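Training component of the fellowship. As part of building independent skills, the fellow (R.M.) carried out the full modelling exercise for a liganded target. The chosen ligand was pyridoxal-5'-phosphate. The inputs are recorded below so that the supervisory panel can assess the work.
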Amino acid sequence: MISAFLNTALPLSFSSSSRSVKLTNHNDPGPKRTKLKFIINQERKFAFMPLKCIWNSDLEWNARNHSFCVSCLTATEVPLGSSEVVADRLGRVVSEFRSLTEPIDRVKRLLHYAALLPPVDESVRSQENRVAGCATQVWVEAELDELGRVRFGADSDSEISKGFCSCLIHLLDGAEPEEVAKVKPEDLADLNVGLHGKAHSRVITWHNVLIAMQKRTAALVAGSERERSPPLEQSFPSSLVATAEAQIPQSRWQKLDANLSRS
Amino acid sequence: MPPTPLQLFSSAMETAIHKLPSFKTINPSFYTARGTASFRVGLRRSSSSLSVSASADREGDQDLGHRTRPDFPILHQEVNGSKLVYLDNAATSQKPTAVLKTLQNYYESYNSNVHRGIHFLSAKATDEYELARKKVAAFINASDAREIVFTKNATEAINLVAYSWGLLNLKPEDEVILTIAEHHSNIVPWQLVAQKTGAILKYVTLNENGAPDIGNLKQMISRKTKIVAVHHVSNMLASVLPIEEIAHWAHDVGAKVLLDACQSVPHMAVNVQSLDVDFLVASSHKMCGPTGIGFLYGKSELLSAMPPFLGGGEMISDVYLDHSTYAEPPSRFEAGTPAIGEAIGLGAAIDYLSGIGMQNIHDYELELANYLHESLRAVPNIRIYGPVPSGSIRRAALCSFNVDNIHPTDIATFLDQQHGVAIRSGHHCAQPLHRSLGVSASARASLHFYNVKEDVDDFVRALKDTVSFFNSYK
Ligand SMILES: Cc1ncc(COP(=O)(O)O)c(C=O)c1O
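Fellow's submitted model of the complex:
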């Protein structure tokens, strides 16, 4: 049993050559084998809640598919969802990104986080899990575990977006629903890559993902309380404009791809 | 070759300190077609832009990009520690000093509401606002300024036609022909109106060259067709539709044609009379003018027969408690206080573009278009959408593309962060087109006349670096 104290400000090595955390068996739906190697920055003081990793040295990991999100970073012996944990993690992620002044280092850090994002089942990439408004495709799913905590899974077709998702999951996976609701987009403004300080642009992935996580959490909580609560106001149907795409001969669509200018 | 108005003006200015650029005019008739009114504000070009352009002129054979760059102060900055390379012109263009000065002058010296006051400022604002309408009319060669309706942007102009003309004229089973390459702005309004009227939307697909299939479009036109609403230049494929022919086919069956000229009007001479389109829409912000203003051109007899789109002040002639009588076009369609300063700013942008000459802009951009396509094709594992340029196939100066296994947004992010190159990524408001191409997003580099070949070189070099960066992470 490894019991590593980890500073989640991720003193991991982030260059491409020495990525220190690798998740393998991406498509294996069964228990994941996770190869982990952490380089701990001794200089950092563990001023925050020490997080303890609870996997076996033979790396067998029997948790649910994505409940080990961001590996050790969420699996702690501290009761998950205590407000300090989310706040502490938030503080550390923010200061981590704030310390990276070179844009390329921020991108690299996000790509590193992307590599830490546990693979999710193909089924997560469904239309209802799509996060609206992102420039890339992002899928988020949320579930309440038996203790009433929210467990998140996410995926994206963009590596940078995956990095954002990974950070958010690291922050919020296993938190109480109220903790999830409490996080404000402004708190995360420092995660911006390329969009300095603009916390409200439609294209900012982490902003949209955070909102999606919060909405899904609210829906889960509302769902479990449905019997008691009055019905919601009927919302305007979002598929109002379903008309004539049927008029496009489908067979032509497929042909096109082969005919593109390619070199 | 007769002297252009600009040249005449510039010789009149010989005694002044600064000399105006005398752009070599390839098509002098272009100027005569546009009348003289449109040059009045052009004479007020800022001295700073004149002086730099004039020095460029002295150097003789500089290309249009190098000659005009000094007129765009925004281009001369660093972003993220690199020299800005702005290649997102299809999303919006930059504004020359002449336009900025016009806006400032409006707000500093004659800001006032139009058509409402008899006082000096209001009269002056009204004059300039209406002069801007005349400039737009001259720019696209409309026969009468009353055929120009100012709108917020092209999107609002299309909605105006879809709701006002569409709700009145479309019946169940009538057909509206669009292409799969339309911008969402030219799809969604028709979906909304089709839903209300029972009309059917038909979409032209792409041909084997990756451009909208003209044969397919021709076949689709029938007696059921009531309107053909298509783009002129595709904002993703860079392809150009033969609008004259399309209008001919449509009119043969009594159908109307709406032309989305957002990506053509800023880059080439567009003549509504020779194209014979019934409606044309464009946005000021893509043609070096301010945001918040666009226009609809509609043939007089059509506009006169159309009911108002929005209700309010300005568009009525008399209001009673139970009914109102409507003003004549274009006022009928301009409810409320319009974007006055912005319209006047658009007028200044038109003066600026006309001063260069749309044919000159088009010729230069054609060169850039080929250079961009050729340079990009050299990037490994790239897929460029749209037709391959050739002797007979011309492309606009933009390229949408994907590189294998790297998300276009990741590419755009890295280009911006590491290289200061601004390109667009996403679906460019053309999701049906992306879907038909089997992708959810693409990257797009789009140029304007103030771009230079060095911008393309910088971009392609940066793109290669970006690709190798992401590949090293695989
Ligand atoms: C071809 C085309 N049509 C319509 C539009 C919509 O223009 P706007 O958003 O200014 O109304 C655009 C702009 O992106 C465009 O490229």
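The panel noted the following from the submitted structure. Residues B 90, 153-155, 183, 185-186, 231, 235, 260, 262-263, 283, 294, 429 surround pyridoxal-5'-phosphate (CB under 6 Å). The first helix of chain A runs from residue 83 to 98.
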